């Protein structure tokens, strides 16, 4: 016979029995009848195929199977109690905190206007905003340090465990220092021996290079350096003989300043998505949902 799944109330009863020592005391603590407790425990034992309780003159005690289940049951019951407290806080408006991770590239795009709109609407919510490296964004989402994150996501990034709400898109383009001799080269195949500079994660480099190459098979350049500091990146990109990768909106600014020029080659297009990210198993609170609305309303994803 199929065992099915354990029910939360049955686990709560097991914890109550362990804490109070008798079925009657557990029933009183849970505001249910003793027969209801007895029936639930028997159903639980039948489902698991083991005996969980042993009667004694002083009441009941857990068998070794019961002790094993109790350790897990306490964790489940504690999480439910925590969720109930969080829901009460949300309903009362007290103690609400929203923690947001922002990638270095995305910190000045969309965020200022979205945060201002959020604070006007929900001034009592405490905001924690952290500027992070791309790897810190993923780690923070995974361990729960961040409720939401705003970051540039490349097509080559692995985001299967996260929900990504697109805000805007930008092309990734390659460039060199203004008047650099490399600017005359139009064949990507002839640039593989040059020094390259990349502003995303090293893990995403192979996939990014395949995107540039399209249907061709070209070896990944051996001189591919990674820099995620925007200020340092701007300086390093101006070194002679360096090919740098840019989101188009940032390169446009450097071109206006006379520092860089776009490299026109036969490379295929690659795109970045400015996205709001959160775990797929996350149930959005009212404040989280409102922040999502705020950042989606920013025109063109920029300030």
Summarize the SSE layout with pairings.
Layout: H1 8-20, H2 23-30, H3 34-48, E1 53-56, E2 59-62, H4 64-92, E3 97-103, H5 111-121, E4 126-132, H6 134-143, E5 148-154, E6 162-177, E7 195-198, H7 205-213, E8 224-226, H8 230-237, E9 242-247, H9 248-256, E10 260-262, E11 270-279, H10 286-297
Parallel strand pairs: 3-4, 3-5, 7-8, 7-9
Antiparallel strand pairs: 1-2, 5-11, 6-9, 6-10, 6-11
Helix pairs in contact: 1-2, 1-3, 1-4, 2-3, 5-10
Short description:
41% of the residues lie in helices and 23% in strands. It is of the alpha/beta class and 303 residues long. The protein is elongated, with a radius of gyration of 28 Å.
Give your account of this protein's structure.
The chain has 10 helices and 11 strands. By secondary structure, the protein is of the alpha/beta class.
Which characteristics define this entry?
alpha/beta; 3 domains; nine-stranded mixed beta sheet; 23% strand
Shape: elongated
The assigned structural class equals: alpha/beta
How much strand?
15-25%
The CATH architecture of the largest domain can be given as 3-Layer(aba) Sandwich
Classify the oligomer: single chain
The percent of residues in helical segments reads 40-55%
